[in-house]
Amino acid sequence: MSPKEKTETLSIVSQVEERGILILRIAGFIDASNINQFDRQMHEQIEKGYSKIILDCSEIQYMNSSALGIILDIHQLAIKRQGGIRIINLPRKFEKTLEMLGLTDYFQIFSEKEKALQSFLYK
Questions:
Q1: pLDDT per residue as tens digits for the range 80-108
Q2: Is the entire prediction scored with pTM above 0.85?
Q3: What is the rounded distance in angstroms from the CA atom of residue 37 to the CA atom of residue 54?
Q4: Which of 27, 35, 49, 101 holds its CA 20 to 30 A away from the CA of 3?
């Protein structure tokens, strides 16, 4: 796959779970070529009223620092609305990056969707 092909591929699939919890399955590459699309789609979820969001990162291939900034921003907006972001299926390479940046204490990261759902339902 050429660098141009991989930088243009981003897919976000949404699914609403019980009690209005939104699961976003993010696949592909998030970089300069599609960061505005990612930002717009993430903010649209907050505008639609979703404040409890689970990001399924199992299919993310690459994420730049701007994407992390957007996720932090959305997390803060969601917290203000009594919600937040939970992350599931985060590839180890990205988990290491979050650890180095000190963000693993800021986000709740789960290996299973059910545990992430329960974290919202049973506070």
A1: 999 999 999 999 989 898 889 888 888 89
A2: yes
A3: 19
A4: 101
Task: Spell out the domains of the chain, with CATH numbers in brackets.
Answer: 3-121 (3.30.750.24)
**The tokens of 65 are what?**
């620092």
d(CA 102, CA 81) in angstroms, rounded, equals 24
- In eight-state DSSP terms, residue 31 is S
CB atoms within 10 A of CB 62: 15
Question: d(Cα 73, Cα 119) in Å, to the nearest integer?
Answer: 20
Q: In what order do the strands lie in the sheet with 22-30?
A: 10-16, 22-30, 52-63, 84-88, 108-110
